[in-house]
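If I may wish for something, please walk me through the protein I am sending here so I can picture the backbone:
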Amino acid sequence: MASANLLDFHNIFSLEGKVVVITGSSKGLGLSAASGMLQAGASKVYISSRTPSACEDACATLNRLPNKKPGAKAIPVPADSSTIQGIQQLFDLVSKTTDHVDILLANAGAAHPASIEKTGEKEFSDSLDLNLKSVFFCVQRFLPLLTVRGTVQDPSRIIVTSSISAFSQIAVGDVALYAYAAAKAGVNQLVKQLAVDLGPRHIVSNCIAPGLFLTDATAPHIGVFNVYPEQRIIR
């Protein structure tokens, strides 16, 4: 059997012609996912984050990829997906150029480590809004577009970025991820419910739960995590 060339995503799987929306995709894991999906044949990948210039820069980078399909493109749709108003804005922007969505990757999220004494109500609520509540309401709003093309043979997909912190305690030096870990544990249960409820509508729902890996967000903490082998950041 011929070995797969990992630089050619068509040898691994094909997303030819698929329309993809990714929240939190102007950098980090979301941007990497967008790159992979474009190279796997997606026709449109919508790039969203709070900052318009970051979305524009990410799309410029993605649209220079040499091995995406002719005519395929990344499209900037800046919006704050931590709020209901922002999710509606995202939906409105996406709806201008497509009548369906095949894949929704709810990736927007952030962790703000703090000790239990310094974790305030606002910080806790903000973390739940971004990391948990936004997932539900983003799925809810995009459901009409996700049901357009899904079939038994080729269902639409919801993918949600959870975290290893949903399963195990992770500390950043002397502080912890109280709200973030609770939100991600909630995400896992939410996606189980989505899978049961939306499966009959030809929508497959899954979580991914990555560990720590090197991004702009984790780079400042690399010295802390590299103290113990089991805490080292994936490169």
